[in-house]
Amino acid sequence: MASLEEIRTTRLEKLQKIKERGMEPYPIVSKKDFDFSELAEDFTAIEKKGKPISVAGRVMSLRPHGALVFMTLDDGTGIFQALLKRDSIGEEPFSFFNEVVDIGDFIQLTGTLFVTKRNEKTIEISAWTMLSKSLRPLPEKWEGLKDVEERFRRRYLDSLMSKEVRDRFIIRSKVITELRSILDKAGYLEVETPALQPLYGGASAEPFMTHHNALDMDMYLRISDELYLKRMLVGGFPKVYEIARDFRNEGIDVTHNPEFTMVEFYEAYSDASKQMAFVEKMLKGIVAKVFKTKILKYNEHEIDFSNKFQVVSYFDLLRRYALIPNPESITREELALQATQLGVSIAPGDSIPKLLDVIYKKTARPKIIQPTFIIDYPIEYLPLAKQNPKQPAFVDAFQLVAGGIELVKAFSELNDPIDQAERFAAQEKNKAGGEVDAQPKDDDFIEAMEYGMPPAGGVGIGIDRLVMFLTDTKNIKEVIYFPTMKKRE
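Predicted structure:
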């Protein structure tokens, strides 16, 4: 078998032959009368006209049979068969085609439609030209793409050769389109907030830091859109949302990528309970519209979206799955010991809420299969959420988990600037104690709140995880077209 470099050298020679023939191997203009999907759908009507048409696509297979060459082309909308006949096109064009065209090349064909004896819709070629000469072979002749890491590094080949991969990213796009449609119809205004921020905030996470030379100041890539979107509530916009890339300088695993996509939306005069109902309706609507069903499969489980989503308290989950009988009063030392016994990595400065969270993620979250809202989080857990007036030790918040994956986080937004300043002070204390992902105090945000922020309900949905869940995918890299990868050694 020829090496990659030998194949490339041969194709470079073919490229030179194309140029010597006077054919431009990378022309500006191409002609394409129909997409292949249109040809498949309207084949009979187009065939009856009997007129020559032009199509274009990438050669995916070549099957020479003496004076005939059958081939399959892919134009991104579908695949279509073409036939090159020496007797019809002439000896010279036929021989030149066989001499210079390879699988992977983009070509333009002109011809007429017919149906073969095997009832295959086909175009018989009367003329052809090169649109883009490929210099490297597609993966079926290149062993390297069998490596999972190489699939992610060369995603363009991964999606080219796998309909399943390509379809997954089409579904991702449809999910985002439907999300946007639902929010638009509900009266939300799509807005943009800074990705480059003088102070990160809105989530408990470590940021990426950079430096702005002209201003001579350190800046951060956003970890969340939350604090800026809530400033817009202060600014008189009652319902806002943003679909944006966020960045967190943390570990990479099957559910975490340093760069990811979130949708966050905030509604004035709303609260967690109202948003809970909206989120349930939204997700059921997405499943029905995109997948045309009410039951999806995830990790061998049937996820039923026809039922009302379950509701359970955070501490009840810890009691049930972590076997912690007293989560409201357990000591830090007891939690640290249990986390260690579970094999969970912890840091010396981790607070009680942080330790409860890592234990919950290890023991309870993987067991939550059907869509379930989790409520009653400790007040220290969500420093931007409003206190539950009926249970002052908890915040008025929820998360949605399904298939063992956290999909949604939402709460009644804290709009008391005094309370917010105190929560930030507690976070600063945790950070000083070694909790690296504690939230920093944002004086500018507190100042904005002091002008008056309406009561509101806010929601954040991780789009990558949502698409993972909806497409029965186990690795977040499978739903991010260009995932973050370690540099090749």
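Summary: The two ends are 27 Å apart (CA to CA).
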